[in-house]
C-alpha cells in the first residue's frame, strides 16, 4: 500500500468515528448532526448574518435556511433584524439553544480526542492537515 494511501485511510477512519460519535450524541439531545453544527457555530459567532454563518459552516444558503427554520420553530435560535440593514437578520441562540448541551459536548469532545497527545505532535498534525486541505482546495479550484 502506498504511504499516502494509508495516511488518507487513517484520516478518513478518524473522521468517520468522530462523526458517528458526534451524531449519536446530537441525536440523544434531539438534534441532527447538521442542526447541532449550526448551534455550535452560532455559539462562536452570535449575531452573524445567514450568509456569514453559511460561510462559516461551508454550506449553501438554502440548506442553512431550512436548518434555521427548523431550529427557530423548535426554539433553539432566533432571528432579529440587523442594525443598519433591516432586510438582513442577525442570528442568535435562545436560552434553549445555549442550554442544549451540544456546545459543552463539542468543547469537551475537542479536548477528549487529543488527550495524551503531545503539544508538538498536535502542532505538526494541524500543520499537515492544513497542507492537505490546501492541496485538496487547489485540486478543486477553490
UniProtKB/TrEMBL annotation:
InterPro entries recorded: HTH_MarR-typ, MarR/SlyA-like, WH-like_DNA-bd_sf, WH_DNA-bd_sf
Gene3D superfamilies, per the entry: Winged helix-like DNA-binding domain superfamily/Winged helix DNA-binding domain
GO process annotations (BP): response to stress
A Pfam family annotated for this UniProt entry: MarR_2
A GO MF label: DNA binding
Domain of life of the source: Bacteria
Coiled-coil zones: none
Keywords: DNA-binding, Transcription, Transcription regulation
Protein name stated in the entry: MarR family transcriptional regulator
Stretches assigned to the HTH marR-type domain: 4-134
Calcium listed as a keyword: no
